[in-house]
Amino acid sequence: MASRPLFGFTAIAALAAAVGLTGCGTGDDSELTVYSARQEHLIKPIFDRFTEETGIPVRYITDSAGPLMERLRSEGERTRADILMTVDAGNLYMAADAGLLRPVDSAVLRERIPEHLRDPEGRWFGYSVRARTIIYHPDRVDPANLESYEGLADRRWRYRLCMRTSQQVYNQSLVATLIAHHGEEHTEETVRGWVANFGADPFSNDTSVLNAIRAGQCDVGVTNTYYLGRLLRENPDLPLAVFWPNQDDRGVHINVSGAGITQHAKRPDDALILLEWLAGDEAQALFAALNLEYPAVEGVQWDPIVAGWGEFKADTINVAEAGRLQRQATMLMDRAGYR
Ligand code: FE
Predict the structure, then answer these.
(1) Cα 162 to ligand 1 centroid, rounded to whole Å
(2) Which listed site, 100, 102, 160, 229, has its alpha carbon 20 to 30 Å from 92?
(3) Which pLDDT score is estimated for 30?
(4) Cα(21)–Cα(23) distance, rounded to whole angstroms?
């Protein structure tokens, strides 16, 4: 991924503030409606900017992915939602699989969003990339001893590894892509090795994993980089370092947050205008930087904190594979004793 740091978070926040208030209106048929699992502070500045540029008002409802998909399902044809926006290709895949999203044929989106970051059938598109990578304590780990996700199963990491719970989608997606690359048998060996190396019970979230490494409960872990970015915004001297694994083979495990047009959208034309607008340079930079992620579109500048971690080779397997193999992944993790 190519790095082009240009402007920082403060500049983006100031821009967002200058744009003014629109956002979550009362709701009538003239408004485009988005169901979003991406939190309000990460989307509101973007929708405000969109409304300012296009005159199309956006109404949004935020919740977790599961409840939003359940709501779409139960509302059926009566839904007011035109767009579903959520994190993780596993969730997007499930929404598409459940018939909640409609295929979109857009030359703009095909050209702008790399093929591996969107649904092969055009029902959803990745708008920001999150890298799930190895984080280590530089005083206790020599990065020369790190190599790959698979390498964390090595005995040298016994009681030194911290991971997030297998109940949450991020590590399910990571394991799903391991299955896609290595098959189930090899992947199960790797996951059993991780479990044997756990220095603590799995954590409920990535930030807890980072805090455990910082506190000395373990030396190494796997998290999305934006969680580290959030901690670094508070404390730039934090003794936590990023390692990019698998650089000699497939590359770093990435995932997306993305969106698609709902099956029963009432304003599909405006919905497509928003989806295409989100793939523009300005929207891409803002969408990624607000959450310290990577833009999906190549050549868009990175936030300086993100750029500080350097460039890396990312896995280009289609992120939809994470969804397709999710059930196999959760069953495998369960068999391997990963809770
Ligand atoms: Fe997250």
Answers:
(1) 17
(2) 229
(3) 78
(4) 6
Ligand 1 mean position, distance from CA 229 (Å): 12
Report the number of distinct structural domains present in the chain: 2
CA of 331 from ligand 1 middle (Å) equals 22
- Rounded (10°) angle between helices 40-54 and 281-290: 160
Other Cβ atoms closer than 10 A to 322: 30
300 CA → ligand 1 middle, Å? 21
Whether 193 and 233 map to the same domain: the answer is yes
Distance 178 CA to ligand 1 centre (A): 20
Are residues 303 and 329 both part of a single domain?
A: no
CATH of the domain at 54: 3.40.190.10
CA 287/CA 127 separation, integer angstroms: 8
CA of 62 from ligand 1 middle (Å) equals 15
pLDDT in tens, 156-210: 999 999 999 999 999 999 999 999 999 999 999 999 999 999 999 999 999 999 9
Are residues 190 and 328 part of one domain?
yes
Within a domain: residue 229? Answer: yes
Question: Is 46 within the bounds of a domain?
Answer: yes
Q: 226 CA to middle of ligand 1, Å?
A: 8
Ligand 1 center to residue 84 CA distance, Å?
Answer: 17
Residue 22 phi, psi dihedral angles, 5° rounding: -135, -100
Please choose, from the candidates 169, 201, 185, 212, the residue with its C-alpha nearest in 3D space to the C-alpha of residue 337. Answer: 201
Report pLDDT digits (tens) over 14-38: 444 433 333 444 445 679 999 999 9
Looking at every residue in the chain, the average pLDDT score rounds to: 93
Q: Which domain holds residue 94?
A: 9-129+255-307
